[in-house]
């Protein structure tokens, strides 16, 4: 992003702001119980519970930081040699964490300021994931 023009920066800011507003509107307008629930006869797997937002915002952030630390450790250990494997891991894990954060923000009791901050960070996360996907396809923001 060192060689990005002013127009690219403006588009990134507009994209971030619009995604943040959409996420905030979704968290405020969608009812908290409007999440797909599995059959009551069995317990759902932990990934499904995580994506549904049952870990609350704090737990979701801790799990996301743990995933990021595990990815960093794998990269430092030389297990993720190619850019493709590293990018796919970041995009897959980041998507799961951002969806879980959205559902946790909807389900939990949050103040309006807390929801605005949460949606701002989520919007930034989605923009970063979009930039990683664009880089995967050989496109750059210039």
UniProtKB/TrEMBL annotation:
The keyword Transmembrane helix applies. The chain crosses the membrane at residues 6-24, 87-105, 112-137. It comes from the Bacteria. Keywords: Membrane, Transmembrane, Transmembrane helix. This is Uncharacterized protein. It comes from Serratia marcescens.
